[in-house]
Every structure is written in structure tokens, then in C-alpha cells.
Amino acid sequence: MKYQSQMVAKPYFIAAIGLFLGQILFGLIMGLQYVVGDFLFPEIPFNVARMVHTNLLIVWLLFGFMGAAYYLIPEESERELHSPKLAMVMFWIFLAAGVMTILGYLFVPYATLAEMTGNNLLATMGREFLEQPLPTKVGIVVVALAMLYNLSMTVLRGRKTAINLVMLVGLWGLAIFFLFSFYNPGNIVKDKYFWWWVVHLWVEGVWELIMGAMLAFVLIKVTGVDREVIEKWLYVIIAMALITGLIGTGHHYYWIGAPEYWQWWGSVFSALEPIPFFMMTVFAFNMVNRRRREHPNKAAVLWALGTGVMAFLGAGVWGFLHTLAPVNFYTHGSQITAAHGHMAFYGAYVMVVITMISYTMPLMRGRAANSPLAQVVEMWSFWLMTVAMVFITLFLTAAGILQIWLQRISDQPMSFMAAQDQVALFYWLREGAGVIFLIGLLLYIGSFFIKGKAATAD
Amino acid sequence: MRVATFQWLMLLTLTALSFGLAEAGMSGSAVLIPVLLATLVKGNIVIDRFMALRGVKGPWRWIVLGWLLLVLGLIAYAFQLAQS
Amino acid sequence: MWFFILAELLVFGIFFLAYAFARTHNVELFNASQLELDRASGVINTVLLISSSYFVVLAVSRIRRGHSRSCASWLITAMTCGAAFLVLKLSEFSGKIEAGINMSTNTFYMFYLGLGFFHFMHVVLGMIILGAVTLKAWRGGYSAADHAGVETGAAYWHMVDLVWIVLFPLIYILN
Fold first, then answer.
1. Omega cis (within 30) before A42
2. Could you tell me which of A272, A373, A293, A358 has the C-alpha nearest to residue A67?
3. N or C: which end of chain C has fewer CB within 10 A?
4. Contacts with A240 from chain C: Cβ below 8 Å
5. Looking at residue C1, what DSSP letter applies?
6. Longest dimension (CA), chain A
7. The total number of structural domains that make up chain C
């Protein structure tokens, strides 16, 4: 760690991991409710568990991105953060808002929550992933703007590199596209447009910039490969990601009432979206093979490589699987979507945040790398979580294929709930894989508490 | 430099030829084959001469030429398919 | 840059084949709609792009001998052709739009307008690149030994030309 102010990243990362644990617990509750419908009813109904599961994911990833930005930007800009105090204030505001929101979901009926929080002044609630009450949404904007001010001032007065500029553009995009969530038109087609402009332009647009910048930063640090080489890769990757991702938005327009030509444009461009992810994999392996030094933090290198592979599989391959309009005609909104969602979020965004945490946390705790034992435990957690996620994805894919067959293709189509009964076996298997994932996560958290002498490069 | 000028005139001639066939109201294979061949030659001139990929080491030339051949070949196939 | 050129060729290639195979399901519609196109405007545009590509070749050969100003002049000539292409294309499009035709009219027009517009944007981008190269060349920023920028800009422009060379017969002529 070169600058004292980079330390503000630490609480952000701790909060991220805490909320990650919460997300997984609610995922398990919900996974069980798939097969035991009245589990924990009426205390935690399915819709609430689902909302908590997805909202926690987004919030903890945002914590992770913010922490990563507060660590990476000063180092790249070669100066202290503009205002570490502001960053800390924003941390507590964001954490309080996040916790209050989750408690609100859990203890107040959603309709009452909407009434209490002024949804009748400006209706923004009730849409998937954007369920947050108005004050939370405003809070997210305030926190994001304060962070952007803080980071932009740092970059403006400091060194400008490809990495900190891409990171900053990604974060600005994240904040700007979130503004679409404040517009909730009555026309359902328009509503879907604006909803996708938040959801899609985040995960298949600006988040990829953030991810690319984080991955490039860690790779420079752990491999010692020349900055020029890594920056060239980064530019090509983000250019490809933006071109395919922006026009690829069309793959969400197929069946929402948009003009029919989107079936062509959405299909072709989103079919190319795997390319930037494939390049990220090649990039990561290439850089590690050309490394000029052996970094003692082996776990961070493993996470970085894993990010490339899993992002390509989850976002690239599983996305391509159902992105072409003639296929999507049958698959949209099925368990195939859920399979893709799980592996893409884990492979791309969860893993890149953990890569960053894995690289920076030891440094913030005063050592280049954790003890060999702690690293072994961390690598075990890597394999447990990653393999468990692969199985979750495979089981959901199997469930999806069966569901589509029974419900949409066969001569005597079943109703939704009847088809769900038929795929229950896969839901049980998925729940089992989920338990393995939780064990992996607990091991990961445990690895932070293993003491011992710091590992050295051998 | 005369070479480039010659190639430019060649491209113009081939364009005129394709246009002429269409204006003459011909259709089917009578248009398909000559026009696609003309396009192939035109594309080849642009790739080898204008982009100067001829003599470049490595796969670039063959990738771009391969693209041209593949696209034109499949277009020919699709149009044949539509005729039958 | 070559990576982008290949990616662009891939996208256009997919769309060309999509056109060709979509046509097999609807030959009459495609043939009938194609007759409504302004073929003369298409052929003039082809001549413009081919010529502009030729002028870019001349510009590259000038800078190889270190003649910056002459290189810039040829690039300006090439861009003039490019601008004429854009004007003609816009009038073609506006004619169609005035006739009440848009991308939802039928599959043929979806491809004609969509691909045409997509290519149009590439010509615009190519002009911007050539413009930047011209500016630098005019100020003497390139030399006989170091002119990679000119070559890269030229390669992109030739790609735009190459795509049009396939697009023109495919959409305007073959039936």
C-alpha cells in the first residue's frame, strides 16, 4: 500500500463480505422454498426472500466496486485520495441505508413500506432489482455522486492512466444509468425500456468497464507485465464490450412490444458479447504466463484467472445459449435465465471483487500476502464456491430445459406450477450445491482469521 | 502508381458491368454468377492491393480473404436455394 | 486496429448472410422491394467509395516518400468523396422515409435501412479517423519513416469500402 488513504477501502470490503453472506443465506432459504413452499411462511415469504437475495447482491457488489475504486484510484493517480473523510461518511450512510432497506423488506409488508417511504410522491418501487424505497434510491445517488466527486478530484490532480480513466468512466456510467430508475412510466413498453436501460446497461455495459479496470490493475500488480501491454488489451476489451453490449440491449426487446427488427439486431450483436469475455480469459492467462515476477499472493492470482474463465462461461457461453431470438422465444423467463444469471454474476462480478479483496486485504493488513495456510484455505474456498456454482448452473439448466419442454413445447403443455413439480429433483440438487457454496464462503471468511508468517515469493 | 490507377479503373469497370447486367433486366444465374465473381475480384483488389495485405506475413491476409470467400460463397448458396 | 477491422467484418458478414438466408423464405417480397430502390444512386455511391479508397492509396504512397502536404491533399479529396457518399445516402433514406417506409415495413426494408444506416455510421467514423490523420499530416506529424497512423486510418477506410463492395450487389442488384 502506497498511500494512507487507500485504507478507506477496508470497511467497504468488510461490509461487502458481510452482505455477501447474507445474500447466500437468503438464497438458501429461497432455494428451499422452491421445493418446500411454506418454509418460513409467513415470516419470510418467497417474494421477500427473492428481493433480499437480489438486492443484497447488488448492494454488496456496489460496496465492492466502491472499495476497489477507493483503493485503486489513489494508487494509479499517485496521490492521496481527495477526501478520505468524505469516503468514510459515505460508507456509513450507504451501510445504514442498505441495512435499513433490508430490515424494511423483512419486517414491513412491501405495500406498507411503499406508503411509508413516499412512493406516492414519486412511484419508483415494485420493479425487479429496483425495489428499493425512494429514500434508498436517493441515498444511492448521493453516495455515488460524493464518491465520484472524491475520485474525480483525485484523478484530475494526479496521474491519468488507462486503468483509472476506464474505472472512472465505468463508475460515472453506473451513476448516470441508475437515474433511469426514477422514471416509471405507466406505458408498460416504455417501462421495460427504462428498466433495461438500468439493468442491462449496468451489467452488460458499464460494469464491464469497472471489471476490466479492476482485473487489469490486479494483473499489473501480480505479474509485473508492462503497463503498455496491459493497457492495450484493456482498451480493446472495453471497446468490444461497449459496442456489443450497447446494441446487444436489443436482446431484451424481443417480446416487450418493441419493433420486430430488434430480433435481428439484438441477436447478432448480443451473439458477439462473448468475445470481450473470451478476450478477458486470454488476457488473464497470457499475462500470468508472461509474468516477470512470482507474487507471493498465489490466491489472488487464482481468483484473477478464475474470473476470466468463469465470466466467459457464465456471461459468454450461458448468455449465448439463449440470446438468439428463435431460441429465446422458448427460453425467456425460464430457469435457463436463472442459470445464466447465477453463473454470470458469480463469474464476472463476484469473482472480480473477490480478486480485488484477495489482493488488497493483506496489503491493508500490513503484509504482501497472507500466510501459506491462510492461502491454502482461501484456495479451497475458491474451488468449493466455484465448483458449487458450476453445479448450481448445470442443475438449473437441466431444470430449465425440462421446464421449457413440459410447459412450452410439448403437445399438451403443462401449467407453470405443474411443470415446477416435475423439475423438483433438480431444485433439491441445486439446494445441495448451494449448501456447498455456503461452506466455501464460510471457509473464505475463516481464511481472514488464520494467523501465521506472511508467505514470501519462492 | 500506374498500377493503383489501373486497379481503380478495373474496379470501376467491374462496377459498371454489374450495374449494366441489372439494368438489362437480367435475373437468376445469369446475373448471380458474373456479379458475384466481379465482387470477388473487386474485394480481392481492395484486400491485396489497397489494404496491401499481399505479401504480409501471418494470418491476416488469409483471414480477410477467407471472410470474402466464405461470405460470397454462402450468398451464392442461399440464392441458389431460393431459386430451386 | 486490425482486431477491430476483423470484428467489423464479422458483424457485417453475419448480417449479409442473414439477409441472404432470410431472402430464401420470402423471395417475391425481396425482389419486389428491391425494384423500388434507386439503383443509380447505389452505383454512384459505389464509384464514390471506390474512388475515395483509391485516393487514400495515393495519399499513403505520398507519405511513404515523405510528402506530407500532398498526402493531406489526397486525403481531403478522399474525404470529399466520402462526404458526397453521405449526402447521396441521406437523400436516398429521406426519400424512403417520405414514402412512409421504415424498418418495420418488411424484412427487406429492415435490412436495407438497418444495414445501410449501420454502414453509414461506419463511413462517418471513417471520415473522423481520416480527418484526424489529415490534420496531423498537414501539420507535418508523419514522415517517410514513421507514418503508421496513416496506414491504420487507410486500412479502416478500405474496410468500409470493402464492406460496401459486397453490400451494393447483394442488396441493390442480385435478384
1. yes
2. A358
3. N
4. 7
5. -
6. 67
7. 1
CA dist., res. A194 & res. A213, Å (int): 27
* Amino acid identity at A426: F
C-alpha cell at B61: 491476409
pLDDT reported for residue C76: 97
If you search the block for the grid coordinates 484455505, which residue do you land on?
Answer: A377
Task: Name chain A's partners: 3 or more CB pairs within 8 A.
Answer: C
Q: Which residues of chain A approach chain C closer than 8 Å at the C-beta?
A: 236, 239-240, 243, 259-261, 264-265, 268-269, 271-272, 275
Nearest CA in chain B to C166: B39
Whats the size of chain A, residue-wise? 458
Q: Which chains touch C (3 or more CB pairs under 8 A)?
A: A, B
Cis peptide before A84 (omega within 30 of 0): no
**Exposure string (b/e) for A89-105, b if CB count within 10 Å is 16 or more?**
ebbeebbebbeebbebb
With a threshold of 0.85, tell me whether the complex ipTM lies above it.
yes
**What is the SS3 assignment for A259?**
coil
Count of CB atoms situated within 10 Å of the CB of C87:
11
Q: Which residues of B touch C169 (CB under 8 A)?
A: 18, 35-36, 38-39
Rounded to the nearest 5 percent, the helix, strand and coil shares of chain A are 80, 0, 20
How far, CA to CA in Å, does A251 sit from each of A190, B33, C90? 16, 36, 28
Q: Which of C41, C55, C106, A443 is nearest to B1 (CA)?
A: C55
What is the average per-residue pLDDT within A159-169?
96
Q: What is the mean pLDDT of chain B?
A: 90
pLDDT in tens, A100-138: 999 999 999 999 999 999 999 999 999 999 999 999 999
pLDDT, average across residues C54-82: 95
* Rounded Cα gap, residues C83 and B36, in angstroms: 28
Give the 3-state secondary structure of residue C33.
helix
* Chain B CB contacts of C173 below 8 Å: 18-19, 21-22, 31, 35
Task: Set out the domains of chain A in order of their start, with CATH numbers.
Answer: 1-160 (1.20.120)
Q: What is the DSSP letter of B45?
A: H
Q: Domain with C109 in it: what CATH number?
A: 1.20.120.80
| Cβ atoms of residues A105 and A48 within 8 Å | yes
Helices (H) and strands (E) in chain C, counts: 6, 0
Supply the mean pLDDT for chain A. 96
Contact between chains at C15 and A268 (C-beta distance less than 8 A): yes
